[in-house]
Inverse folding.
């Protein structure tokens, strides 16, 4: 077991943070937790998890990740709803990568009790 902090930015080890969601031993309890786990999946190249946590009505048939992409950090800029008491939620974040960053406002919904990613928009900075 490694002791490196999770790629999502939380200080816990990956295995105790997003790793348990990736393995399927736990479900993300909030839209923000799912968003963080999806960022970690991008960092680790886990396309299967990304597809599994994508809403069926917006999920692509396949996802080809660029193995040369180097994600370098995640900053949560805001959240709307998305707790255990909601059925919808949003997370606005900045994901940095070598050479730039991506600003997105993601929408999430509960599907059969689990949070899933629906889609995202790219607001102006």
């Amino acid at each position: 077991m490694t002791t490196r902090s999770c790629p999502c930015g939380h200080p816990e080890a990956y295995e105790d943070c997003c790793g348990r969601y990736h393995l399927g031993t736990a479900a993300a309890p909030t839209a923000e937790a799912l968003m963080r786990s999806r960022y970690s999946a991008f960092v680790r190249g886990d396309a299967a998890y990304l597809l599994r946590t994508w809403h069926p009505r917006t999920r692509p048939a396949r996802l080809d990740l660029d193995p040369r992409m180097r994600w370098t950090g995640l900053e949560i800029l805001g959240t709307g709803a998305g707790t255990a008491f909601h059925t919808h939620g949003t997370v606005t974040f900045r994901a940095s990568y070598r050479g730039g960053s991506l600003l997105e406002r993601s929408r999430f919904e509960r599907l059969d009790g689990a949070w899933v990613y629906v889609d995202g928009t790219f607001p102006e900075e």
In short: The mean pLDDT is 96. The beta strands are 71-81, 88-97, 100-111, 114-121. Residues 76 and 83 are 15 Å apart (CA to CA). The first helix runs from residue 18 to 23.
